[in-house]
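Sanity check

After download, print the first record. It should look like this:
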Amino acid sequence: MEQLNLQLEQEVQRKSFINSDLKSANQQINNLKAEEKRLRAEIEELKQTIVKHQDSHKKYKQNAALTVLQIRELQENLESEQQFTLLYKNNNVVLKDKIEEQERVLEMRKQNIISLEAERDSLSTHLEIALTKADSEQLARSIAEEQCADLEKEKTMRELEIKENLQRYKKDMNEKNNLISQVHVTDPAQNTPSHASQLI
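Expected structure tokens:
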């Protein structure tokens, strides 16, 4: 009987130990389940974080690619602006040279205008002198023409006078020659040179 009680007591103790172990195991299982749940939650959170990071990384890559394109575009724009700046500088140099050349041409034209104005003034002075001289010469010519007309008139009168004198002289000579001829006819003895001279 004692042995049976002992066995029963041992069985109760063993059962108590088993229950305690079972309870401890259940507690550990519950703890493991809680840990598993926590770990699953962390894993899920990590997955979401990874997805977010992947999305962020993808966006970063896209932004990086876009940034690279923008940098290339900016570099191309910079090169174009540099070329434009260089061309602008070259054009400025050319324009500056053209402006200086035009200024030189304008200065030459200005000097030519000044020279032409001086020549015009000189020609105007000479023209005034020439006009004054021409007026004087015209006046002198008019006086000379009047004098020539007077001389021509006097010449004509003298010629008429000479002509009249010649006609009168011829008439006188004819009359004297006729008289001499008549004397020769009436008195041949008196036809001597001395007597003819006396008649003349």
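If your output differs, re-run the checksum step. Summary of this record's structure: The CA atoms of residues 81 and 169 lie 121 Å apart.
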